[in-house]
Amino acid sequence: MIANHPEREQFRLENVLFALGNPLRLAIIDTLADGKELSCNALRPQDVAKSTMTHHWRVLRDSGVIWQRPQGRENMISLRREDLDSRFPGLLDTLLQVMHRQ
Amino acid sequence: MIANHPEREQFRLENVLFALGNPLRLAIIDTLADGKELSCNALRPQDVAKSTMTHHWRVLRDSGVIWQRPQGRENMISLRREDLDSRFPGLLDTLLQVMHRQ
């Protein structure tokens, strides 16, 4: 089953901010920032349960932050960089700059 | 009673993003963006209960987004613009630009 992804036009700023308003989800965005696609298992911290990650993937996917692509028994995750930059110009760049400054 | 406000150094990006990840709280930030101080009642939408706003003020205050200053029976609310700009350079400006573009 391929999960639903919102169209770019459906993104809402408050949903994206909510999705990123969590340390684990913010760290995932940082990991994916250079454009790579990683499996959900590769992105999962060892001390976090798969079911907990399922929730985080849904929040990130439903807000438009990530693509989730099924491959075998896993999902491959990547950042919707182009869509986010188009809808919210400068937001992702500013967030990444601020994160690396801290 | 003067409510607790975090020091600038205690701000966390994920908490600020969470605080702004809500349409009502995001709209309040837009209203306060030009530096004015308004009473909590002036900022409360007519269809939102005071108790609901108390929750929103707490989320905004605890993350470092607003100052809450008691005056008579009300609280006066203003944006912690200088502190936010210092800790997260460009974030507030980018968010306001994106909001006005939508």
Describe the structure.
2 copies of one chain form a homodimer. Chain A is α+β, with helices and mostly antiparallel strands and 102 residues long. Chain A is built from 6 helices and 3 strands; from the N terminus they run H-H-E-H-H-E-E-H-H. Chain A has a 3-stranded antiparallel sheet. Chain A has helices at 13-20, 23-32, 40-43, 50-63, 81-87, 91-101, and strands at residues 38-39, 66-71, 74-79. The relative contact order of chain A is 0.22. The radius of gyration of chain A is 13 Å and the shape is globular. In chain A, helix 1 (13-20) runs antiparallel to helix 4 (50-63). The first copy, chain A, has a single domain (8-101), classed as Orthogonal Bundle (Arc Repressor Mutant, subunit A). In chain A, strand 2 (66-71) and strand 3 (74-79) form a beta hairpin. At the A-B interface, helix 1 and helix 6 of A face helix 1 and helix 6 of B.
In terms of topology, how is this protein built?
The structure is a homodimer of 102-residue chains.
Chain A: H1 13-20, H2 23-32, E1 38-39, H3 40-43, H4 50-63, E2 66-71, E3 74-79, H5 81-87, H6 91-101
Antiparallel strand pairs in A: 1-3, 2-3
Helix pairs in contact in A: 1-4
